[in-house]
Amino acid sequence: MPPSNGPGQCGPASTGSPATALAIAHGSPADHTVRRLLPHLDNHAVGFAAARQLALQYDDLSDVTPAVGAHLLLPEGYRLAATSLGIDPTRCLVVEDAEPSLHAARAAGAPTAALKGLPADLRIDDLAHLARLLTQARPRPS
Fold first, then answer.
1. Which of these, 72, 95, 108, 114, could form a disulfide with 118 (CB 3.0-4.6 Å)?
2. What does the alpha-carbon distance between residue 97 and residue 126 come to, in Å, rounded to a whole number?
């Protein structure tokens, strides 16, 4: 395994910034993301890392997704996901790029962040923008 550049860094091509990594990854096929962030990997390692990225991408809601199914455009889908995670929907930030999903999230009582200039509680340019906002808002140890 290649050496790491340190916590939160991906390897030699890493910028050291989660926001930049998100900007590279958002909307890109997993193998393209891996090749850009870890150009030293061979084809086998890229395939393995890309599969892991896809698995992690959906891991948080893996227990909820089958139950939510076709309800993703209904408020109940967001309520069910929040309840399954043990969180009140009002404490979940739903990030979407589609108007119907934003409507459903708001109807479930969740605050929303939207891409593509859609109306929401928070409008974001991209996921890197959201990462910067979350980093700035993170409580600092005293």
1. 114
2. 10
Interhelix angle 75-84/99-107, rounded to 10 degrees, is 60
Instruction: Tell me how far CA of residue 65 lies from CA of 17, 23, 96, 98, 122, in angstroms.
Output: 30, 25, 16, 18, 25
Phi, psi dihedral angles at 68 (to 5 degrees):
-75, -45
What sign results for the dihedral spanned by CA atoms 80, 58, 105, 72? negative
C-alpha 40/C-alpha 13 separation (Å) is 9
CB neighbour list of residue 118: distance below 8 Å, 6 or more residues apart: 96, 97, 98, 99, 102
Give me the helix-helix angle, 43-57 and 30-37, nearest 10°: 120
- Domains of the chain from N-terminus onward: 18-57 (no CATH), 64-135 (3.40.50.1000)
| Joined tokens for residue 63 | 């227990």
The HSE-up count of residue 125 (CA atoms within 13 Å, CB side) is 8
Query: pLDDT averaged over the chain?
Result: 77
